[in-house]
């Protein structure tokens, strides 16, 4: 798997078989430049403008925006389960989806706009995380401390932080990346992309900060 961050919670995941998966595409009001990223499959965690702009993706990708089990063929599956966008059982912001992408002997998890610590059933359904794309900015989602706890509950090997304050969303009431990374004794590594294989996962950084490709 090759992981690139386009910006915010939007990632491109490229598989060995050529399949391209994009998560949570944002629109222009998000602050990040909207760049064309072709995809075969688009995962949409919920309907907010910074996570559901499927019309910005070229072509006619398959859209997965409901809970369920999805078989994409060639040993690639996606599990989508429901969670809440807040800490009040959805009464503030509704629901969000959590995705487990299983392929190439790896399990990559994208937590959308998760607003609470996952419960035992959710942890069990998602399974141990080889790669975890997790919101860390707080206010709209779990905060830095909750993100660290969630990563631990999921037995995460590699953490890819997302949904934090940058120069393009400086007026958003969310925390910067450092609020999360400073909770660890090990340094985060900044990279343009991350290539992960089952055989080399132990050699990868614990926290990989993927530099947003849309800001280059």
Tell me what the structure shows.
- The structure is a single chain.
- It is built from three helices and 14 strands.
- It is mainly beta.
- The strands form three sheets. Strands 5-4-3-2-1-13 form a six-stranded mixed β-sheet, with no helix packed on it.
- Strand 10, helix 2 and strand 11 form a beta-alpha-beta unit.
- The longest helix has 10 residues.
The global form is: globular
Helix content: under 10%
Q: Can you give the mean pLDDT?
A: 96
Q: Give me the side-by-side strand order of the main sheet.
A: 5-4-3-2-1-13
* Biggest sheet overview: 6 strands, mixed
Structure classification: mainly beta
Order of helices and strands: EEEEEEEEEHEHEHEEE
**Count of alpha and pi helical runs:** 3
Write the layout of secondary structure elements.
Layout: E1 2-7, E2 10-14, E3 20-23, E4 41-43, E5 62-64, E6 68-73, E7 76-84, E8 95-103, E9 106-110, H1 120-126, E10 131-135, H2 144-153, E11 158-162, H3 178-181, E12 189-191, E13 194-195, E14 208-210
Brief account:
The protein has 216 residues and is mostly beta strands.
Q: Descriptors for this entry?
A:
6-stranded mixed sheet; 3 helices; 216 residues; mainly beta; 14 strands; 31% strand; single chain
């Amino acid at each position: 798997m090759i992981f690139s961050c386009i910006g915010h919670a939007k990632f491109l995941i490229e598989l060995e078989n050529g399949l391209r998966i994009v998560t949570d595409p944002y629109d222009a009001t998000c602050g990040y430049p909207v760049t064309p990223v072709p995809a075969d499959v688009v995962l949409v965690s919920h309907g907010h403008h910074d996570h559901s702009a499927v019309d910005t993706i070229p072509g006619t990708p398959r859209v997965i925006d409901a809970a369920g089990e999805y078989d994409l063929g060639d040993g690639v599956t996606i599990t989508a389960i429901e969670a809440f966008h807040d800490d009040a059982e959805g009464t503030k912001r509704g629901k969000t989806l959590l995705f487990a992408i299983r392929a190439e002997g790896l399990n990559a998890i994208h937590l959308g706009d998760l607003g609470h610590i996952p419960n035992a059933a959710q942890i069990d359904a998602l399974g141990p995380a080889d790669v975890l794309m997790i919101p860390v900015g707080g206010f709209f989602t779990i905060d830095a401390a909750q993100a660290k706890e969630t990563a631990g509950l999921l037995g995460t090997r590699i953490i890819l932080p997302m949904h934090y304050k940058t120069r393009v969303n400086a007026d958003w009431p969310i925390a910067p990346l450092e609020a999360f990374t400073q909770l660890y004794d090990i340094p985060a590594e900044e990279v343009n992309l991350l290539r992960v294989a089952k055989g080399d996962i132990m050699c990868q950084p614990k926290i990989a900060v993927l530099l947003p490709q849309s800001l280059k």
